[in-house]
Amino acid sequence: MSEPLIPLQVAVLTISDTRTDTTDKSGEWLVQSLETAGHRLYEKAIVRDDVYSIRARVATWIADPRVQVVLTTGGTGFTGRDSTPEAVAVLLDKQIEGFGELFRHLSWQEIGSSTVQSRCLGGLANHTVIFCLPGSTGACRTAWHGILAEQLDSRHRPCNFANLVIPQRGQHG
Q1: Which residues form a coiled coil (predicted)?
Q2: Of 43, 87, 121, 159, which one is least surrounded by beta carbons within 10 A?
């Protein structure tokens, strides 16, 4: 790859009723990974697992032309108040069906059939790509190394999501 990486502005949202800035290992792992890859953290936040709290935060980032990527962690399972897919899906202009399929394929190699309980989600909204990941650091690592590192890299061929969210002339002011 001889061309330089085009760094993306990434917002990271942890969805949890119990995690704090000091106990949010998955959110922090995502921040470190995206920065190590050459991207920039726009903002990191934690919200409780509530459809409207999640939706409000993600919608704010989607509406902000400076945010190109939103990564969420948590709230994608079937237990308790897990509601990230319900909160985010209605905000999407297009879903990336293959993201959940590929994530579960990769995850199956690590955790077996338990991966069917992952309702991770990907999509595009207002020139922003959104990926909703499970809350475990292991799942974030699987998604990052198996999918996101390449798909957020503008140099990855034959295609990537970075080139869909990089401002073109006339876009985003």
Answers
A1: none
A2: 159
Identify the H or E element spanning 67: none
Strand partners, 17: none
Q: What is the DSSP letter of 113?
A: G
What is the rounded CA–CA span in Å between residue 87 and residue 102? 22
Distances (CA, A) of 81 to 11, 51, 52, 132: 23, 9, 12, 15
Q: Which of 7, 14, 9, 2 is nearest to 132 (CA)?
A: 14
pTM: 0.94
Closest CA to 18 of 45, 49, 51: 49
Using alpha carbons, select from 162, 96, 93 the residue that is nearest to residue 133.
96
pLDDT (tens digit per residue) in 69-81: 999 999 898 887 8
Counting as low any pLDDT under 50, the low residues of the chain are 169-173
Please report, as a single letter, which amino acid is at residue 137: T
- Return d(Cα 132, Cα 78) in angstroms, integer: 14
CA-to-CA separations, 117 to 68, 123, 126, 151, 166, in angstroms, rounded: 28, 19, 29, 24, 33
Q: What is the DSSP letter of 15?
A: E
Place of tokens 């990271």: 12
